[in-house]
Amino acid sequence: MVTKLVLIHGIAQQDYTEEQLLGIWTDHLLDNGLDAEKLHSTSPQMAYYGDHLYKWAKGGPQGAVAMGPTVPDAEIDFLSKALDEIARANAFDEDEIETLASQAAIAEGAKAIGQSSWVGRRAVAIVSLLERISPLRGRMAAKVIRQAYVYLANKNARADIANLVRPRLGTGNTVIIAHSLGTVVAFNLLRDLAAKGADIQVPLFVTVGSPLAITEVQRWVGGTFAVPSNVKTWMNFYDKGDPVTLGRPLGSNFANGIVDTIVNNNTSNSHSIGGYLDDKALIDSLNVVL
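RE: above sequence
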């Protein structure tokens, strides 16, 4: 049986085309040892939704979550709770967070966060501390959490993205690699397809840089957290310094049966896709299953 390879990207990919992203991902895989003949035999596809997510985040389509100067209270609550969890995972000093919050220090990555409330200023303080570790970490964490909220909280956005990604999964044997918010999109779809008895089998589901360990993300995902019945093996790769993953394995923080691997994501924010696709264990697993 022919095995397909489907790639599902994360946030902030609206400046790329589907073809460009596919090329970037497959070049990384090939450069790091994936068998070229095996890769080409899968006719790899990029499940692209970046332009639609961007429009939803900007409040374009009717019914989108407002993302202008006034940030909704529910979004600030989601953002602040997720950032609080990141702060605990990084052992940030509570007194320093309080001091920065009282000063309303503006971090580069948090300019879009409403600061008229204490909750908003506290969120900004945590982003500021992340940026002390790396200038790009705070910016990236805030973006991921905000766009995750758009996807999770807006049923129209969620349905729109599902309608873009689901057809790419097709039927039969499908290997999936998902990054960042794409791991949430993929999990939701696979769980739904399994419940409906859809004809899809996933011999290998690879997640990298996943936010599924964040409590607020889990609360909005809802339902049962388990490896979907249509997935044979779920491998998760995370960097302990990637704030989106909280440096936590999914096997003990999301669902039993997930095989976790710690990687060294050598990119500036410890989250970028290139720093995950060069991992030898990931490449070896793909070479075996494809």
